[in-house]
Amino acid sequence: MKAQNTLGTPTNDRKKLPIYNGASSQTIREICLKEGADDVGFVEINRESLGSVNDEVLSLYSKTKTIISICKNINRENVQSQSRSLANEEFHKTYDDLSEVSRRIVKQLNNLGIRGVSCHPSFPMNMDKWAGKIWEISHKPIAVEAGLGTMGINRMVLHPRFGSFVLLDSILIDTEVEVYDKPIDFNPCVSCHLCVSVCPVGAIDVKKGLDFNACMTHNYRDFMGGFVDWIENIASSKSIKDFRSKSLDNETISKWQSLSFGPQYKSAHCVSVCPAGDDVFNIFKSNKKDWNQTIVKPLKEKKEPIYVQKGTQAEENAKKNPNKQIVYVKNVTRPSSINGFLTGTRMAFDSKLTKDVNMNVHFVFYGKENKMATIIIKDKTVSVKEGLEGTPDLKVHCDSEIWLKIVRKDISSLGMIKAIFSKKLQVQGGLRRLKQFQKCFVET
Fold first, then answer.
1. What residue ranges of the chain have pLDDT lower than 50?
2. In sequence order, what are the beta bridge partners of 396?
3. Cα–Cα 20 to 30 A to 371, which of 31, 46, 104, 292?
4. Predicted pLDDT of residue 132
5. How far apart are CA 26 and CA 320, in angstroms?
């Protein structure tokens, strides 16, 4: 009598899975689509145009030879609704679905002898890197390189068919494929600038790009820095009445909702109104008036709390819309590392605070962290570069732990003076310039 396995199938009759030598991109594409992906693209590891993303990929899976980029189309009517509940549920459920799709794809590839990892598009994240780049892998530039779309001014990948209404994931495999994809040679963006007009905090600017601080402070109020600020309001309050003066009841309830059912986005207006992509543009083109009346106008006129920081460009923009209730908050972005400080400068930078400041700043950090970097403030924008570039207007040579204390305001003016006398902080270009630099960033 033949031995039986736990599923009741004779073990010596079990079919052997094929050992796959090499990989057909068409076979893998068909697997991805069959398992639920709505589009697929392939990028070879070490593609030069990916830049630092290659390092991200290899840090997650050192055997990576090919990156598979996949996307899921989200139901645009849910996202276009004025109801945040409908929109947020659509985002969360599609993220969950996309994660399951990726895992199923990897299992199917395993059956072909291909090993790899799925890089789940949602949480958890590396919060030890806060307040810098906390996501482990950048799905958007991978998707662009894989031909799944171009980056829109709303910082969403615009798919040729689905437009902004996609969520992305990446799968890293240890096998090369015979055909790799390239970026598309056209831009699905129709230059309508509806995303610019509808953003309640004016975070989107065609010339300056995205105001990260404005977007994070409002849209991600229930995430990260906003949550820390809410906790600090609790800790610093002398009484219940004092706490309620700092955080309205609806915000506290919103935090409960986010903790119970997943973080809630405060706004997806820039996605909602976007008519990019063949499926969406044909509807927009056929009746632009209806699009504006049924989607754009209701979002503009929606009465909702808008979270801003005092003295910022976001506050100025929010005041222009009488339908919005301005709520003053902080977006806590205190870095825990030098990398967190450098990558977090985009989140803390505010164009209104620059006051025509144009400055090239060289940083040399030593001690616990050794790092050289350049921060350039020019034309109300900020950029961060590895190493020392250009002619500096200001040079800062500092012990890394001392600098983090300065940024987090954990050190007094007397402490800064002591750091200067002990030469743990050396400034060439004058303390006045250093103060000018510091004032370009929102205080937390």
1. 1-20
2. 363, 427
3. 46
4. 64
5. 52
Q: Name the DSSP class of 23.
A: B
User: Contact 347/131 with Cβ under 8 angstroms?
Assistant: yes
Distance of CA 400 to the CA centre of its chain: 26
Domain ranges of the chain: 15-173, 194-328, 338-438
Query: Which CATH superfamily hosts domain 338-438?
Result: SCP2 sterol-binding domain (3.30.1050.10)
pLDDT digits (tens, 9 = 90+) for 89-119: 999 999 999 999 999 999 999 999 999 999 9
- Tokens 């030593």, residue located: 366
| pLDDT for the residue 257 | 87
What is the predicted pLDDT for the residue at 369?
A: 94
CATH architecture of structural domain 15-173 = 3-Layer(aba) Sandwich (3.40)
CA 292 and chain centroid, separation: 28
* Position 205, amino acid: D
Which residues are within 8 A (CB) of 277 and not within 5 positions of it... i.e. 6 or more apart?
A: 158, 159, 160, 161, 162, 163, 164, 165, 188
Which pLDDT value is given to residue 14? 33
What pLDDT was estimated at residue 123?
62
CA distances from 384 to 339, 349, 397 (A): 11, 12, 17
SS3 per residue for 243-285: HHHHCCHHHHHHHHHHHHHCCCCCCCHHHHCCCCCHHHHHHHH
The per-residue pLDDT for 124 is 61
- CA angle in degrees (0–180, nearest 5) for 272-35-40: 60
What whole-number distance in Å separates Cα of residue 227 and Cα of residue 241?
Answer: 20
Residue 141's SS3 state is helix
What is the pLDDT at residue 127? 72
Cα–Cα nearest to 184, from 286, 268, 121, 278: 278
Cα separation of 283 and 9, whole Å? 53
Dihedral sign for Cα atoms in the order 315, 336, 343, 412: positive
